[in-house]
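Box 3.1. Reading complex inputs
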Amino acid sequence: MKIILNGREEILEGATTVAGLIALKELNPNAVIVEYNYSLVKKEDWSDMVIKENDRLEILRFVGGG
Amino acid sequence: MSDILKIGDRELTSRLFLGTGKFSSNKLIPEVARASGAQVVTVALRRVNLEYEEENIAAFVPKDCILMPNTSGARTAEEAVRIARLARAAGCGNWVKIEVITDNRYLLPDNYETIKATEILAAEGFVVLPYMSPDLMVAKKLVDAGAAAVMPLGSPIGSNRGLRTKELVRILVEEITLPIIVDAGIGRPSEAAEAMEMGVAAVLVNTAIATASDPVAMAKAFGMAVEAGRMAYLSGPGEIMDTARASSPLTGFLRD
């Protein structure tokens, strides 16, 4: 299944949820923010959110800035 | 002497805001924050790098500081609004520094897009601190748009060139009732003091501290300079004259 993850095409093997994707990428769930098709997904909804073909996901985090 | 800076619903005793970019190690941030006395600390929002593990900057900001995400990276009002909403939804509180920039050489803000973003976010309950090119008419529009403070640049971001916009900032201090916070370009503690002496409410410093050889000591120096400048402003500096005014009696030593 093809998705757009952080602006780049990515192929996912089999069905997964947002929570599954975060685990797959070995990210700390408490340190990232997920935008799914341009809307923010709350962390409590990550495990219910099934990723579909051509979905656009942005995984963001806070970084240093002035 | 109680000298409180009120922004939104918060009362601040420190008038130095701290940026967290460009530090050689995030581990310096809590120490720098403590040394500077800053109570407002800025962060940015970016895509996660999926290739390697990164640190969570928010974990390095002392818990008693107000975390103020900026909208850096936004090129339009819409993008700034999107970033602000994401940051708030991520539990970052409701303060936001609006930064809309399309000019890559001087990083000068787009005042027009900044006003639009301010209006939208203030209506949504954000405490909006817009970064702007100092201009009186724009500042007035930001006031009408619901800004909580106005943040004119001193000189281009990260340039350490100091308070080159002094005359224009002075006009904002005189004409705008909201707090004026000089953001960007302050390179030396003396320049922070200079801004405070002319009555700005606060200064935001990042590069000058982060790129100093000893960022912790420099943070302390900035904290002291901001306090000194504020105290000087409140003390009412004496008039500037074109010619000498003798400090000693003008009579000759043994003559009238």
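In summary: Chain B has one domain: 5-235.
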